[in-house]
């Protein structure tokens, strides 16, 4: 008769493709029960947005099916997002597991559109997601969400994020006095506003906080990198050399600050002909892939050019909501899963580093009192 040890031995042959570890050592098997050949347990995945969730579940069912003495198998599949940043070092934002800064070297690459639709794509997997519009000079997220008259309340000296399509949203554009006039502030004030949006906001148990950064390498990206521990930076570019060359500068800045680069996404990558479905590379080809190869960072997706994305943003109807089956929405969904996978990889590395540090501290000889 099969025993629990044999079940775990079989399950340990299932490898998470992203983390390169078996699901047993990762602690992904919960509440295992085996009685008279009746087996049940919970498979707790590292994120509901993992690109390999279906593959892992299929592998689990396959190896259990190889155990002849298992008469009945009851599998419950859940997900618990891993913490991709050191919460021990952050006393202000312990309710946020992952903070992802979305950056670009220059404006005009559709970074805010990418930030918004990636946040929606992650949220649609079941993850709890927040979106911080950190472009103080030109906040665009409220318009793109159809929230021009939106606002944020203050309770117990904490900003309460606005809610839209399941997202917790914070933006300078929600302040009525700034909605229709230019923000004219020097760097220190801008940095102070961002810090307040980060640490003085009642973020409610987020798996991912997407921070839509202004273009370039100025005060806001620098403040984000230096204020709190973050999971990493996602770089958005377009195929043109001028965009990818400037994106390289943004990558260089974050690398100097020892901030992990999650990967690169190429927006406006190509146009798909509605008549023949052929791809046409209107702005060139391979800009993001060149960056990926140059810096050895993951290439996480390419978003096709679609007039519906632009018009949807102007009308407050993001493509992930207005046309979820479109090629662009599918591309956003794929990119979001790849990003979630990279966050899990970074979280796993962080756990290993913390475990190694703890082991070194425990094994270090005590100082002599003589």
Task: Please provide a written account of the structure.
The chain is an alpha/beta fold and 370 residues long. The protein has eleven helices and 17 strands. A hairpin with a 2-residue loop joins strand 3 and strand 4. Helix 7 runs parallel beside helix 8. It is globular, with a radius of gyration of 23 Å. The mean pLDDT is 88.
| CATH fold name of the largest domain | Rossmann fold
- Secondary-structure element pattern, one letter each: HEEEEHEEHEHEEEEHEHEHEEEHEHHH
CATH H-level name of the largest domain... which superfamily? P-loop containing nucleotide triphosphate hydrolases
What's the end-to-end separation, in Å?
60 Å
Total domain count: 2
C-alpha Rg (nearest Å): 23 Å
The number of helices is: 11
| Overall form | globular
Helix coverage percent: 25-40%
CATH architecture title of the largest domain: 3-Layer(aba) Sandwich
Summarize this structure briefly.
The chain is of the alpha/beta class. Helix content is 37%, strand content 21%.
